[in-house]
Design goal:
By secondary structure, the chain is an alpha+beta fold. The protein is built from 16 helices and 25 strands. Strands 1-18-17-19-15-20-16 form a 7-stranded mixed beta sheet, with helices on both faces. A 7-stranded mixed beta sheet has the order 10-11-12-3-13-21-14. A hairpin with a 3-residue loop joins β10 and β11. The longest helix is centred in the C-terminal third of the chain and has 18 residues. Keywords: Signal, Transport.
Length: 562
């Protein structure tokens, strides 16, 4: 295993916006002894999470911590298996009957956690809600092309799209596509109407929404701030776990849904505990305080591999870490400046030095396992002389001073310090500014930054999700395009890629757009890191980890020492 090759934190100045977290030095790290195991059923699985979830509302956020929990509560129409292949979920079959019409047959005999029967009306209510401007969902871009949900029968719907949209099945597999009961959605809207003091009834609101226009917009504006009061506190899905308790900042407890219709489970309860400090999570894993630890950093991988009662699970990922530029600020509106920086950054060195060899250097914004990736692209290679030449021809021939914004992820901070050092070699002085996660997202969405490092996971495993949100000019800010990048040719190709029903035509469009994004350099595509999971194999077994980073509990069972 390649060890960390550099530790620049002591050599270069990092401007910390927030105070450092408290020390983990006093955490007990004693490990359990070895022993043979046998599988048992029943009991509680404890999972240590690095971050707290934002909300249980599938339309309320697009963060990974929330997605990890919500995917166990809500079933989507279409599932992704561990290989990211699309498989039946609440829809047993689907097909495009016309370029702009998709037909879905729904699973019968399914009940919600509340005991209500699942029908096509719940599908309609869920999709209509995510596209409602009053909800103002961050994930609306996944479904905004759906113009109408036509209820054909109790267990059949037609989704009518504004234009041909080939990756619709992949989008429906996203956790944001989890189907909520119509009853829960109705209660959430009614609570919002009541809180706003509106004299519009629930049915009148739905009629206004269908019709659109100024009257609807007025009511939508009135209730928008109150949407999510119910759906953010309660859940009503059909998946194998249901919400039992939530203590924000501390834990979320899910209990087994006894009437789950899609397979047996070997556990009674799952508790997701928020343990931000890596060493604290590892200590809890060693001692059996938790059974699973998520987001293991690569520096801790060997410790878990060598533990008496722990094992490391690794999965290649469809995540891309990137160095982004704010192209609405000088000098990052100059392509020569961006290209110079791209040539100065050695992506392989970041993989070996920061990530201990876990992962691969990025050749484009898409990971190799994402549909639409093109292995024949001409990527930008590290070349300091070429970087210096490009900068000398740019608007900043003598270099410049700038800032690089990061969150508090240690690997991201280390990557930033490496970039700080690399750019100093070509005359660019970089100050690294660190913020906590929520503030970082708000500030970069508002365009307050110069440069930033962020990651994007193509959870649908389709190029549309991996490129459209990050680089289409419709998505400035929070939806994904924090570089504020606008290129009419790229926009047109991204539109072509999502609307062309022909797979070969889609691939051609995405190959061309990837090359443009490499050449234009609105970002430096750094790496596709591996996802790492720690498991206490003395307590649990058959834990899965997919390329999206989801912990798969479908086959989880317990082990006890003989």
């Amino acid at each position: 295993m390649v060890k960390r090759g550099f530790k620049y934190l002591l050599l270069f100045t990092v401007a910390l916006v927030l105070a450092a977290c408290s020390s983990d030095e006093n955490v007990d790290e004693a490990a359990e002894g070895e022993g043979s195991t046998e599988e048992t059923s029943g009991g509680t699985i404890n999972i240590g999470m690095s971050e707290d979830m934002v909300t249980v509302d599938p339309h309320g956020s697009n963060d990974s911590a929330s997605a990890q929990i919500r995917r166990n509560i809500y079933e989507s129409l279409i599932f992704q298996d561990e290989a990211l292949e699309l498989t039946p979920g609440l829809a047993t079959e689907w097909e495009a009957t016309e370029d702009t019409v998709w037909n879905f047959k729904l699973r019968e005999g399914t009940t919600f956690h509340s005991g209500q029967e699942f029908t096509a009306e719940d599908v309609k209510a869920t999709i209509d809600r995510v596209n409602d401007p009053a909800v103002a969902s961050q994930v609306a871009f996944l479904y905004e092309m759906i113009e109408e949900v036509e209820v054909v029968g109790d267990y059949e719907v037609n989704l009518h799209t504004e234009y041909a949209f080939a990756p619709l099945p992949a989008h429906l597999s996203h956790n944001a596509g989890g189907i909520m009961s119509k009853d829960l959605i109705d209660r959430d809207y009614q609570a919002a109407l009541d809180a706003a003091g509106s004299d519009v009834s629930l049915e009148e609101y739905y009629d206004l929404r269908d019709a659109g226009g100024d009257e609807f917009q007025t009511v939508a504006d009135e209730i928008s701030e109150h949407i999510g009061t119910v759906t953010g506190a309660e859940t009503d899905g059909t998946n194998h776990l249901q919400l039992a308790d939530r203590s924000p900042g501390d834990s979320v407890t899910l209990s087994r849904f006894e009437d789950f219709q899609n397979g047996e489970r070997e556990f009674d309860e799952v508790i997701f505990r928020v343990i931000p400090e890596t060493q604290a999570r590892l200590a809890e894993l060693d001692t059996g305080g938790i059974d699973i630890a998520n987001e293991i950093d690569t520096a801790s991988a060997e410790r878990i591999q060598n533990g008496d009662a722990t094992e490391l699970i690794e999965s290649e990922s469809v995540r891309m870490n990137y160095l982004g530029f704010n192209m609405e600020k000088e000098p990052f509106d100059d392509p020569l400046v961006r290209q110079a920086i791209a040539h100065a950054v050695d992506r392989d060195e970041i993989i070996s030095g920061v990530y201990d060899g876990y992962g691969i250097a990025a050749e484009s914004p898409l990971a190799p396992d994402v549909w639409g990736y093109d292995e024949n692209l001409e990527s930008i290679e590290v070349d300091i002389e070429r970087a210096e030449e490009l900068l000398s021809e740019s608007s900043q021939p003598d270099g410049f001073t700038t800032t690089l914004w990061v969150n508090d992820d240690p690997a991201i901070v280390d990557s930033a310090v490496y970039i700080q050092n690399a750019l100093s070699e070509i005359g660019i002085t970089v100050e690294v500014q660190q913020s906590e996660w929520g503030a970082f997202l708000d500030q970069t969405a508002n365009g307050e930054h110069d440069m930033f490092i962020l990651g994007w996971t193509t959870v649908t495993a389709d190029a549309d999700y991996g490129l459209y949100a990050l680089f289409h000019s419709n998505n400035f800010g929070a939806p994904g395009n924090r570089s504020f990048y606008k290129n009419e040719e790229v926009d047109a190709l991204l539109d072509e890629g999502r609307t062309n029903p022909d797979e070969d035509g889609r691939q051609e469009a995405y190959s061309e757009v990837q090359q443009l994004l490499i050449d234009d350099s609105p970002a430096v595509y750094l790496n596709h890191t591996s996802f790492l999971l720690g498991v206490n194999n003395g307590s649990v077994s058959n834990i899965g980890l997919d390329p999206v980073g989801n912990i798969r509990l479908e086959n989880a069972s317990f082990s006890t020492e003989e």
